[in-house]
Amino acid sequence: MAKRTVDVAVIGSGPGGLAAAIAAKKEGAGNVLVVERDVEMGGILLQCIHHGFGTEILGADLPGPAYAQRFEQEAISLGVETLLDTMVLDITPTRQIVAASESSGLLEVQARSIVLAMGCRERTRAQITLPGARPAGVYTAGMAQRFVNVEGFVPGRRIVILGSGDIGMIMARRLTFEGAKVARVVEIMPFLSGLMRNYVQCLLDFDIPLQLGHTISRIIGRRRVEAVEVVQVDDQWRPVPGTEEIIPCDTLLLSVGLIPENELSRNVGVALDPVTGGPYVDERFETTMPGIFAAGNVVHVYDLVDWVTEAGYVAGKHAARFAAGDRAGQLDYVRLEAGENVRYVVPHVLTRDQLPGESIKLQMRARQPIEKPVWVELRDGEKRLIRRAERYARPGEMLTLVLPERSYEDVRQAETLTVNVLER
Description:
Blueprint: E1 2-11, H1 15-26, E2 32-35, H2 64-77, E3 81-83, E4 86-91, E5 96-101, E6 105-116, E7 120-122, E8 138-140, H3 141-151, E9 158-162, H4 166-177, E10 181-187, H5 196-203, E11 210-212, E12 214-220, E13 227-232, E14 245-248, E15 251-254, E16 258-260, H6 263-268, E17 292-294, H7 305-323, E18 333-338, E19 342-346, E20 349-351, E21 360-366, E22 374-380, E23 383-390, E24 399-403, H8 408-413, E25 416-423
Parallel strand pairs: 1-2, 1-6, 2-3, 6-17, 8-15, 9-10, 9-15, 10-11, 18-25
Antiparallel strand pairs: 4-5, 5-6, 7-16, 12-13, 13-14, 18-20, 19-21, 21-24, 22-23, 22-25
Helix pairs in contact: 1-2, 1-7, 3-4, 4-5
């Protein structure tokens, strides 16, 4: 087994991983290695040929491959090393990585710090226990995206999409461009689960109907999907008898949520948040395992790739500092809790005495939509530390509250801080 030592190892080369590698290198890490299971860097961006990437961080409206290429070129120019077509099999608490590839066989990498950047995966039919037969023609929206954008294959001509996630809405428009008919987008929740801008640009602009508070109760067809049965649900997600409707179609796409890819994290002993499915992290994106950091959709699913990149920068910078020995003793934490109308907040904890010399972004999702002005606030018991006005709160759109340096002393005095989203 070949062995080597590096300062920072990054697992995954999507936007979070590339940003982490770049930041680690700029922070002074000597050897930065990116391990990627695919044959090229870029992650899921390579199949996202629609525009909308880089508007915040680059001031440019780019398609996914162009956005990835910018960061790939920067990483290479800085001297970041890569291992492509290489699968990480295991990580140890002492930060040893065991990987395998066809060309190199087994490889052991001893890293001084690690950044987990494996991204996320789609929920499948099995995970939502969708009843009915098992014919051909049932795909996740991301698989259909790869078929159309990379393989040049349109999976069907008359399509129903379950779930109003962003990938599903984007694929509704993309398949319409290819001449397919998207009969309907069906969402079990009473509100949109993706971004409003995608609803407007992908569904409204192309007269594709969205049906909220409904789900698919049955897939019909033997060899190939012939139709789906759609039914209304009550506030407990139970089917309402008498509301069944048969929609003829030859293809069903599932856009029913994303799950952070954390098998490696779990195996090494990193504690995972049951709400997000990602690791518990502090403001530096360090996990509960010292020297192991996490960045991007492996922590929680972001709305914008720009935010994934920003998180990668933070994780990579602090991974480089850890590798250089920038750590004195045990850390003491202040807990962050999801309060009124908040589903979760990231980071989960703040380091009491080693807060960075910069503002910290607290990011969260609302539990229920509030289509009127709201306050996003941070409290220490009855004491309000900061608050920010927003025009609305929607579960499909992440909210951000910036913790400025001037609030650090209040943070140090607290045991637990609570984030709330309240009507104004």
